[in-house]
Design a protein that fits this description.
Elements lengths: L4 H12 L12 E3 L2 E3 L18 E3 L7 E2 L12 E3 L7 E2 L12 E3 L10 H4 L7 E3 L10 H5 L6 E3 L21 E3 L5 E2 L5 H9 L4 E2 L6 E3 L26 H41 L1
Parallel strand pairs: 2-3, 3-5, 4-6, 5-7, 7-8, 8-9, 9-10, 10-12, 11-13
Antiparallel strand pairs: 1-2
Length: 281
C-alpha cells in the first residue's frame, strides 16, 4: 500500500490543480474574468484573450504599438492596464469595441501624442492614466471625447502648457496630477493657473507643480506666482497659432486694401473723364 501513496498523492494534486480557462493565452493566468499577462516579455497584445474578460493586465512587457482592433472580442472589459511597456503609438481604432471600459492605464511608456479618435469608443471611461510618458501637448479635443472622466493622471510628461478650457469638458473631474512637467511660466499659462486656483481641491501634489521656464523661475512653484507676474500680459492672451493667423491675414488685408483703393481711384478717374466728355458736347 505504501508503494501507491506517492502516485495517489500526485493524482489528487493534479485533480485539485485549477485548469486553464478556455481561451486563456499561453503563460497568462486567467481567473474570474481577470487576465494577468504581466512580466511575460510580450511584444504584441495576445489575440486569444477571453471574450468575457473584465480586467486585462498587460503591464511590464515589450509592447510598442496598439494596432487597430487590438481588443475586438472583449465587449465586457472594464479595466485595461498597459503600464510599463514601450508604447510609442496607438492606432485610432485600437480601442474600438471597448464601450464598457472604465479604467485605462497607459503610464510609464513613450507616448508623445494622443488623439481624440483613440478615445471616442470609450464614452464610459472614468480613469485615464497617461503619467510618465513623453507627451508635449494634450489637445482639448481629447478631453472632449471623455466627458465622464473623473481621474486624470498627466504627471511626469513633457507638457509646457495646457489649454485650460479643455477641462471645462470634464464636469465630473475630481482628481488631476500635473507635477513633473517642464511648465513654461509665461503669459500663455495664465489661464491654466487661474483654473487650477479655482479647482485646487482636484489637484494632487500641487506643491510639486514647478516652473521650468523662464530660467529665473526654474523650480519655482507654479501656484506661488502672483497675479502681478501676469500684469504685463495682454487681456486677451494669444497662442502661437493666433499670431500665425495674424501674420497671414495681416499682409493679405493690406494687399486687398491697396487693390480696393486702386479700383476706386480708377473708377473716380473714369467718372471724371466721362463727365468732361458730356460737358464738352
Amino acid at each position: 500500500m505504501a508503494g501507491w501513496r506517492g502516485p495517489a498523492t500526485l493524482l489528487a494534486l493534479l485533480l485539485l490543480w485549477p485548469l486553464p480557462c478556455p481561451g486563456c493565452p499561453a503563460a497568462c493566468r486567467c481567473s474570474s474574468g481577470e487576465v494577468d499577462c504581466r512580466y511575460l516579455a510580450l511584444c504584441f497584445v495576445p489575440e486569444n484573450l477571453p471574450a468575457n474578460a473584465s480586467a486585462v493586465w498587460l503591464g511590464y512587457n515589450h509592447i510598442a504599438a496598439l494596432t487597430a482592433h487590438s481588443f475586438r472580442s472583449q465587449p465586457a472589459l472594464q479595466t485595461l492596464s498597459l503600464h510599463s511597456n514601450v508604447l510609442v503609438s496607438i492606432h485610432s481604432q485600437a480601442l474600438a469595441g471597448l464601450g464598457a471600459l472604465r479604467e485605462l492605464d497607459l503610464s510609464h511608456n513613450y507616448l508623445t501624442v494622443l488623439t481624440a479618435e483613440t478615445f471616442l469608443p470609450l464614452p464610459g471611461l472614468v480613469t485615464l492614466n497617461v503619467g510618465a510618458n513623453k507627451l508635449g501637448q494634450l489637445p482639448p479635443e481629447v478631453l472632449k471625447a471623455l466627458p465622464g472622466l473623473q481621474e486624470l493622471f498627466l504627471h511626469s510628461n513633457a507638457l509646457r502648457s495646457l489649454h485650460a478650457n479643455g477641462f471645462l469638458n470634464l464636469p465630473a473631474l475630481r482628481s488631476l496630477t500635473l507635477q513633473g512637467n517642464p511648465w513654461a511660466c509665461t503669459c500663455e499659462i495664465q489661464p491654466l493657473v487661474l483654473w487650477i486656483m479655482g479647482n485646487r481641491d482636484k489637484i494632487q501634489e500641487e506643491s510639486l507643480i514647478l516652473c521650468r521656464f523662464p530660467e529665473h523661475l526654474n523650480q519655482y512653484p507654479l501656484l506661488a506666482i502672483g497675479n502681478e507676474s501676469f500684469s504685463h500680459c495682454q487681456d486677451s492672451l494669444l497662442y502661437p497659432q493666433d499670431y500665425a493667423f495674424f501674420l497671414i491675414i495681416g499682409p493679405a488685408s493690406f494687399l486687398a486694401s491697396i487693390l480696393i483703393c486702386l479700383l476706386l481711384g480708377s473708377l473716380t478717374v473714369a467718372y471724371n473723364h466721362l463727365q468732361k466728355e458730356l460737358c464738352n458736347r
